Amino acid sequence: MAVLCLSCSLSDKKGESVVPAEANDWAMTGFQRVEGVGAVISPDAEQKFFCPVRKEVVRWESDDTFNPAAVTYNGRVALLYRAEDHSGGGIGTRTSRLGLAFSDDGIHFDKQSEPCFYPDMDSQYDAEWPGGCEDPRVVQTEDGLYVMTYTQWNRRVPRLAVATTRDFKTWEKHGLAFGKAYDGRFSELFSKSASIVTRLDAGRLVATKVNGKYLMYWGEQFVNLAVSDNLVDWEPLLDEKGEFLKLIVPREGYFDSSLTECGPPALLTDKGILLMYNGRNATDNKRCEKYTPGAYCAGQVLFSATEPTKVLARLDEPFFIPEADFEKSGQYPMGTVFIEGLVYHREKWFLYYGCADSRVGVAVLDERQKVFDKVLVPSTFNASNGVALPYRLATPEPLACGKENGKYPLVVFLHGAGERGTDNSSQLVHGGQMWLNPQLREKYPSYVLIPQCPWEAFWAYEKWPVSFLPENMPYAPDMPPAYQALKELIDSCIAMPQVDVLRIYLVGLSMGAMCTYDLCCRFPNLFAAAVPICGTVNPARIAQSEGIEKIAFSLYHGDADETVPVEGSRRAFRALQDKGASVRLREFPGCGHGSWNPAFTEPDFFSWLYQQRRR
Q1: How many CB atoms are closer than 10 A to CB 475?
Q2: Which of 166, 167, 137, 169 lies closest to 151 in space, CA to CA?
Q3: How many Å separate Cα 280 from the centre of its chain?
Q4: 227 has pLDDT over 80
Q5: 75 and 176 belong to one structural domain
Q6: How confident is the model at residue 271 (pLDDT cuts 50, 70, 90)?
Q7: SS3 per residue for 104-123
Q8: In this structure, what CATH number is given to the domain that contains residue 440?
Q9: CB of 256 closer than 8 Å to CB of 280
Q10: Cα–Cα dist 558/588, whole Å
Q11: Both ends of the chain: CA-CA distance in Å?
Q12: What pLDDT, on a 0 to 100 scale, did the predictor assign at position 358?
């Protein structure tokens, strides 16, 4: 029996913790979808291939493309994705083959016209036909060998298998991963989803030994650990009853209440062994009410590097959930972000995942996020109404420059609708990085507050407005709960002794710009300046606001904005002029909704802002 520093598995009881950690600093969080990019791999019915088993030409990726492996190859990202033809009527009834695509930037891929790996009339025919080859994961060795684990599906029992290549053209199929273990005892048992432990070495995820063995976490209904000397023949660990040792299992009432299925290759870090996994929410009374029944979300668990079966910590909330439309439509409409591929490329982490068993998506984590956390310190504000509002706060350097009467200005930066959530990171996507600029921070030392709006809220409005035309913008006399929490948070920052109450500035993007207008209308005696970018407001609100003329306004908008029409800023400009406010409007010809990009590069963007004083 294989034994490797066995320890207790993680409890599946709600409310019990492995480690009462104060912070999940071990986890890789903050992955972001790429703006303007949906699925990176989609089906193509025009791709044809002569199937050596059927002896005919098939449209091998006509129906669905999903569940990808990823690895770096010759300085590029190589993506191996599961592709289904039209030979069956649904999930598990078609034939799967593995497509291959390459990318320079990790986002835009060039697909090969034929699959690179598929069932054939070879030694693995009985294991792979007719279901095919599914759900790959790939790691590389120090000498350039690529080792792929995948699921062989003969429509009787799915089983883990191993194949190797050096060029993704010529493959050697080694057969079942557990075929030789315990005299073949597990050859016919259900097994899938393997994550070989790797380390980051010169930008590559390289298979690495721990305690003299290669390690592989695997499993769908639970997570087990297997060991190997050669990356091909694996031996799963057993418990005292001779059954698979269960390291983590589904947890009632959590996002992973039904399944805990291994994701991309595990990563050896200075904290331990980090395993990302796919958690499926139950559909019965064991499910987590916060997530759609049956939805797949992504979780993380940390194992000890010295005792790889020992759980050190586990996220109670998923770090990535299905939100985009293409993640909730397809073969599996309950919602799926099924993570399988992880690469480090161009100083960023790229996480590739299957979308509703139909497409391939990508999310990116910039390693420089750690700098964000040092400058823009994350925290949570618990408002009096019970709303918990994530936020970031930058504190000025202790410099004399910019300091008046021992105090500094406060900039309140309000993000757009696409950055809502609870991860306390998404709100930094547009504009967050500029506050890291040391020259900017030295020239204009200030407090910078960047709160995050809950996903179900819309800052100043109860819900998403039906139309963004100025005359159609609503007005709610009572502030919605998240908006109340925002105002309390702003007030708490203004109350800090080193904040200059005469220099409180608002900067808002899109939804945040709409909130900027509303704050100025409601509390005109609070702010010195406001910068609404691609925003809109009902001009009647401005006309009715007493004292708004005391605030200086700088408006920015793209004249080709089809999301929030430029007329919103034009009407606001005229209404503010009529009130006697100091206001300017800059339009960017041909620019769409992302007018914050040219706005932030305007030569006087910051100098104008920081010279304003409340009148």
Answers
A1: 13
A2: 137
A3: 17
A4: yes
A5: yes
A6: very high
A7: CCCCCCEECCCCCECCCCCC
A8: 3.40.50.1820
A9: yes
A10: 5
A11: 79
A12: 95
